[in-house]
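Note to self: user wants both folds in one dump. Writing first protein now.
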Amino acid sequence: MSSTIGLGVPVPKLLPVCGLWAVPFTAYMLLLSNRVIYQRLKHGQYIGDRLNSEKNNSGNHEKPDPLYLESRCHLNFLEHVPFAFVLAAIVEINGGNQVLLNYAMATLFALRIAHVEIGLRSKDTLGWGRAPGILGTQGLMAGMAVYGAYLVRDYWGY
């Protein structure tokens, strides 16, 4: 697949896998963002990450501060997904296997959802999805980094 620029010069689509996965990741990020907005509007707390009406109970797993919880869910996503996309783009632009990259992005999406929905947002904030979500994300990102380095191994000079 390619598109044309100028006088009809064909230019290939450089990042079709990243472009495809941008849609579900963006949709989920918007959901997480809107959950924070909802808590802010519901409690009238327009700045900060904790509610004024409650003490700092972020260590209380029984009933965490709802604004803090939703903020952490959103921030955890934003801490990992953008760099994962950078790694995916490096792999894709250097000729990585697009089927493998699609599986990796699908896995990353499932891991990030598990981390939040059946991990942080579970009854005690320590649901079973939390540990596999973060450890799987880190492992997947390490794998993409190694794969990206492998794809440019000729550049190493060995």
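First done. Writing the second protein, which came from a different request thread.
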Amino acid sequence: MHSMQCLLWLNQVFFKLTTLSAKISILLIYYHLFKRANSKLIRATRMMTSGLIVLVVGYYLAAFLVSIFQCTPVSKSWSRKQPGTCIDLDRFRYYTAAMNIITSVFIIATPLPALSQMRQSRPEVTELMGLVLLGLV
């Protein structure tokens, strides 16, 4: 049982890092895609992308640290009988899940208006919109 608890703890820690990496990579693609701000909509999309980058990095780095230090001492995270205290893990998981869903929806929705505007001049943008919308699945 001790090793299962340790694996669960490691999963929580590394999930935050991998989610952060995936979301940042998508946002950096958006940032590069909307590099030339030739309309107000493109500028707004770029500003929204920048804001999301700050939000995602800030939140997931904080969640990563909370995951590591959820118990005092840290070893209590995988050794429940050890003396010490832990945060309310159920509440933390619910907040993390909610934030994960919210940031995912924003990441999916952010480029759609600008891509829709670009679609008239570049037909391959329709395919890109389809790929972005696959994130809803």
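Dump finished. Worth passing along: The helical segments are 2-33, 40-68, 89-109, 112-119, 124-133.
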